[in-house]
Amino acid sequence: MRTVLGVAGGIAAYKAAHIVRRLRELEHSVKVVPTANALNFIGAPTFEALSGQSVTTDVFAEVEDVNHVRIGQEAELVIIAPATANLIAKIAAGIADDLLTATVLTTTAEVVVAPAMHTEMWHNPATVANIATLRSRGVHVLEPAVGRLTGPDSGPGRLPEPEDIVAFALSAKEGARGAVAAGGEEPPPTAGGLAGRRIVISAGGTREALDPVRFLGNRSSGKQGIALARAARAAGSQVELVAANIDSGLLRTLPADIDVQHVESTLELQAAMRAAQSDADALIMAAAVADYRPAATAESKMKKSGDDGLTLRLVQNPDILRGLVDDRPESQIIVGFAAETGDPDTAAVDYARAKFLRKGVDLLVFNDVSSDRAFGHDHTAVQIIGSRAGETFVGEEFHGTKDDVSQKVIEAVIDQLTHVESTT
Questions:
Q1: Taking Cα atoms as reference points, which of 101, 163, 96, 153 lies closest to residue 122?
Q2: Are strands 292-294 and 282-285 parallel, antiparallel or unpaired?
Q3: Domain tally for the chain?
Q4: E strand or H helix that includes residue 131
Q5: Together in a domain, 156 and 262
Q6: Which of 51, 243, 272, 388 has the fewest other C-beta atoms within 10 Å?
């Protein structure tokens, strides 16, 4: 895919180098078009080395190629990250006084804008109006993250992480292709493998309240579930995400037409999944579910006592996955996840294989989380466990980003749905 990466002059410009690298990993041809101010933060040689293409800001450079028109005409996707308040205002006003703004004005490709600026600038009525203008024209705007800004400031305005920007941009592109395909002009590259299907996905980690302040939880970030939701939507399905304690910045990387239901505890997750199960073609249980919860929750914050310890009585939570399997409609596919560690007597994959048989799922996505190999990381390694003709199989270990893994899982879901339909 021919992708243009526009880079504006903000401190977050350094993240643009990681965006180029990620796009190149996905086999995009990347043309970086920075503003002159962007080169005060990161030099042209860096972008040229990563992209393999020349970098300039000037409409008078390489005039014989008519770059200020050609780049926009040839682009299949335009991403601007970071997009400063100044650049956003110029694009909204239709100003084209450098190579980047001229490119945006000439392109007919999908345009994705990832703003980054101080909180006061993001909330300024002028910026609010400009963002509304861009969205009304079909520009895809990724909400900024909340976090540390330049200096001691913190708040909304932080540039999202490169992986999230790329995922958002690709979802926007796939959504546009799907709309075109609906008009019968150009089929999407996934060929709508899940078109007409409804997929329900759980993500994140459940929390069990000890008191109004404290909870028992786990390390799950929800990144894998979010990536699965994007991949399922890109394959043409209607997607519902049951989100257990996922950062709002991650949720903003989802396509706007994905339904999100928020839950806190294991019992809330169970109720939400059961309610969503009846008309779903597939359930993907990617959430990290607490096995135990406190027998009682204190109504006020627990205080330290005179002794040295605290004794908690825990009770076992219901087995959500097994319950969904037992109550599923005919032909429904259920996918489980197993984050396992090994021990001196048993390998992690053997624990996963036993879980697959015990839960009765159609597919089990296993990852070895020994030494913190999976939780919160952008790259992971998985094996998909399933069965054919009564024989259990364990797929080869697949390495990649959360998005790469999600694509692999969705392909397996499509294959399983096709197999079930062919045998019923």
A1: 153
A2: unpaired
A3: 2
A4: helix 125-136
A5: no
A6: 388
Nearest to 228 by CA among 410, 366, 413: 410
Per 3-state DSSP, what percentage of the chain is helix, strand, and coil (rounded to 5)?
Answer: 40, 25, 40
Between strands 292-294 and 314-316, the pairing is antiparallel
Q: Phi first, then psi: give them for residue 312, nearest 5 degrees.
A: -115, 135
**Domain presence at residue 31:** yes
**At 365, which helix (H) or strand (E)?**
strand 363-368
Report the pLDDT value the prediction gives residue 191, as an integer from 0 to 100. Answer: 41
Residue at 275 is within a domain = yes
Residue 67 is a catalytic residue? no
Closest CA to 337 of 320, 313, 314: 320
Check whether residue 157 and residue 226 sit in a common domain: no
CB contact set of 129 (below 8 Å; sequence gap of 6+): 92
**pLDDT, tens digit (0-9, with 9 covering 90-100), for 32-82:** 999 999 999 999 999 999 999 999 998 877 777 778 899 999 999 999 999
pLDDT digit string, tens, across residues 150-196: 778 778 889 988 988 998 898 888 765 554 444 544 434 344 688 88
Cα gap 271→150, rounded to integer Å: 43
Residue 181 pLDDT: 47
Q: Kindly state whether residues 231 and 157 are assigned to the same domain.
A: no
Catalytic residue among 40, 67, 218, 367: 218
Residues 339, 407 within the same domain: yes
Say if residue 139's pLDDT is above 60: yes
Residue burial 326-355, b: 16+ Cβ < 10 Å; e: rest:
eebeeebbbbbbbbbeeeeeeebbebbbeb
Confidence of residue 248 (pLDDT cuts 50, 70, 90): confident
Domain that includes residue 67, residue range? 2-179
CATH number for 141 = 3.40.50.1950
pLDDT of residue 192: 60
Sign of CA dihedral 290, 294, 296, 299: negative
Residue-wise pLDDT tens digits, 259-272: 999 999 999 999 99
Q: In one letter, which amino acid is 7? A: V
